[in-house]
């Protein structure tokens, strides 16, 4: 008997049994899970329109709690992650601004654990997708763990945490078909964007090259929110945190990123792991932006708005220390996956602001760890344990490791002389900054949060011509995947408020109605936002060296030696593995064949060739070089490689360095590699 017949024998078919559980929400009022009609779903309940979120907001807590528990066991967002251990050292005492102990003594090194991640995809998704990247750092300080939980983009999509479940539901694969994975190029995401226009600034970053970083080692990190530094005298400054990669901020190109997803879906984690194994330790300088409390309202943006950044030209970044990642994890599950970060894990001298997105995260993260890591004792897992001792009256629960001695587990008590006892501020006890808070209990947004387009326009104005072209292409690709013509047009009309030039560019590409104006009148720019102005160093760049038997041994080995001395990583590519002999009898060991690697996995290509060139070798070389060329990568050629380039049809142009003799070749080639890309190359 079929399963369907069996089911019908016992009553209705399984489909009919489930019918009573199917709900069509369209056209209905929004309610809580208890059926209470909700009057506002945009704003959490606050003490005054710029005040902190209130714990009594049952609607926010129900909505966020349900969201935090929606997926098990992987993280709902940031599921695809990779991590490493390291150390942090401050350059000079920050006593003037904060009493945080790990920011006082330049001679002390603080252990850190950093987890990088994509946001949208599941644990099995590819890594070079267009997405924000998580950049979460756990400092194991002597005063307790401090977690700086940020992204590689300094702003966010939404202004209030109550909308976070809505955002992620829109980004994730659409529920009716579970597609697409780890991508925003679909209807529900762009429908959310068009109808929640506070997202405009973040979308500009997401459509830029920042959303497809070359590696974790070459992307910035940001705390996103406004926090407070508080010094020993109780004086506070608003502060934003920045991680600046020593290698500069660099990206992939979109076609390259898509191909890497197929060639090596572990591209970013492999890069981080191999760099540490090779001793090329990733380094990031920590910078802070500081605003005096009395200057809070002296800017054309609200300092508490998480969709706004503080332009570096107006609020300079003060570099205060450096982090070095120098040890890979021993076990990805035990360390990377079980790591529990929380923006509420702070130390004396670091406090919060009333940023409503931050306020919601302070609730959400603990709630998430409870379900993901199986209960309230996730802090006892080795990767999460502080390096300083911890004592309190919390007991029992799932996965309890601590064996507490004694009969007392409450405060206050006399049986244990009222221990563990609270510590005074002088003894290192944490005290919250005493901000004055007044206001009615309201669900609303400050008027100062309602400018959604000025900084998005500033971002556009700050881009180089190549970066602007890439943004238009990104919108064209993403919206080209959207099926709804209405949503496409809504997005075009929305971003005409950012730049009419940009909106026209992708409107024409997707066949939408071209907006007529008036467009943005913002002329402000911030050069610090353009990757064109980043540090450019050749160090750790991978060079694919295409070689065949009969190559000019001594000269080529000399070039390879100079490349390595500059910190580059040449890897030999040929038709088959084994040893290659030069014309003089010298040998090179082949690292990859044309089948086991690809042009997109290298930062540059160096074509050497050899005396024994066959048709297949020439064809494979042609494919490698042409792809590198259209991805604007540096290309070098010496000896027979010069003729190979000519046969392919690539002559002298930006980023192409050739030489019959190698007198000045290596230095010129290294300079071309340091530039990262050569955007003024004409692609025919």
UniProtKB/TrEMBL annotation:
<dbReference type="Pfam" id="PF18011">
    <property type="entry name" value="Catalase_C"/>
</dbReference>
<dbReference type="InterPro" id="IPR010582">
    <property type="entry name" value="Catalase_immune_responsive"/>
</dbReference>
<feature type="binding site" description="axial binding residue">
    <location>
        <position position="365"/>
    </location>
    <ligand>
        <name>heme</name>
    </ligand>
</feature>
<dbReference type="InterPro" id="IPR002226">
    <property type="entry name" value="Catalase_haem_BS"/>
</dbReference>
<dbReference type="InterPro" id="IPR029062">
    <property type="entry name" value="Class_I_gatase-like"/>
</dbReference>
<keyword id="KW-0376">Hydrogen peroxide</keyword>
<protein>
    <recommendedName>
        <fullName>Catalase</fullName>
        <ecNumber>1.11.1.6</ecNumber>
    </recommendedName>
</protein>
<feature type="compositionally biased region" description="Basic and acidic residues">
    <location>
        <begin position="16"/>
        <end position="28"/>
    </location>
</feature>
<feature type="cross-link" description="3'-histidyl-3-tyrosine (His-Tyr)">
    <location>
        <begin position="342"/>
        <end position="365"/>
    </location>
</feature>
<feature type="active site">
    <location>
        <position position="78"/>
    </location>
</feature>
<comment type="function">
    <text>Decomposes hydrogen peroxide into water and oxygen; serves to protect cells from the toxic effects of hydrogen peroxide.</text>
</comment>
<feature type="region of interest" description="Disordered">
    <location>
        <begin position="1"/>
        <end position="35"/>
    </location>
</feature>
<dbReference type="GO" id="GO:0004096">
    <property type="term" value="F:catalase activity"/>
</dbReference>
<keyword id="KW-0408">Iron</keyword>
<dbReference type="GO" id="GO:0046872">
    <property type="term" value="F:metal ion binding"/>
</dbReference>
<feature type="binding site">
    <location>
        <position position="164"/>
    </location>
    <ligand>
        <name>heme</name>
    </ligand>
</feature>
<comment type="similarity">
    <text>Belongs to the catalase family. HPII subfamily.</text>
</comment>
<keyword id="KW-0575">Peroxidase</keyword>
<dbReference type="InterPro" id="IPR020835">
    <property type="entry name" value="Catalase_sf"/>
</dbReference>
<dbReference type="GO" id="GO:0006979">
    <property type="term" value="P:response to oxidative stress"/>
</dbReference>
<dbReference type="Pfam" id="PF06628">
    <property type="entry name" value="Catalase-rel"/>
</dbReference>
<keyword id="KW-0560">Oxidoreductase</keyword>
<dbReference type="InterPro" id="IPR043156">
    <property type="entry name" value="Catalase_clade2_helical"/>
</dbReference>
<dbReference type="GO" id="GO:0005829">
    <property type="term" value="C:cytosol"/>
</dbReference>
<keyword id="KW-0479">Metal-binding</keyword>
<feature type="binding site">
    <location>
        <position position="372"/>
    </location>
    <ligand>
        <name>heme</name>
    </ligand>
</feature>
<feature type="binding site">
    <location>
        <position position="115"/>
    </location>
    <ligand>
        <name>heme</name>
    </ligand>
</feature>
<feature type="binding site">
    <location>
        <position position="75"/>
    </location>
    <ligand>
        <name>heme</name>
    </ligand>
</feature>
<feature type="active site">
    <location>
        <position position="151"/>
    </location>
</feature>
<dbReference type="InterPro" id="IPR024708">
    <property type="entry name" value="Catalase_AS"/>
</dbReference>
<dbReference type="GO" id="GO:0042744">
    <property type="term" value="P:hydrogen peroxide catabolic process"/>
</dbReference>
<feature type="binding site">
    <location>
        <position position="361"/>
    </location>
    <ligand>
        <name>heme</name>
    </ligand>
</feature>
<dbReference type="GO" id="GO:0020037">
    <property type="term" value="F:heme binding"/>
</dbReference>
<keyword id="KW-0349">Heme</keyword>
<feature type="domain" description="Catalase core">
    <location>
        <begin position="31"/>
        <end position="419"/>
    </location>
</feature>
<dbReference type="InterPro" id="IPR018028">
    <property type="entry name" value="Catalase"/>
</dbReference>
<dbReference type="InterPro" id="IPR011614">
    <property type="entry name" value="Catalase_core"/>
</dbReference>
<dbReference type="InterPro" id="IPR041399">
    <property type="entry name" value="Catalase_large_C"/>
</dbReference>
<dbReference type="Pfam" id="PF00199">
    <property type="entry name" value="Catalase"/>
</dbReference>
<dbReference type="InterPro" id="IPR024712">
    <property type="entry name" value="Catalase_clade2"/>
</dbReference>
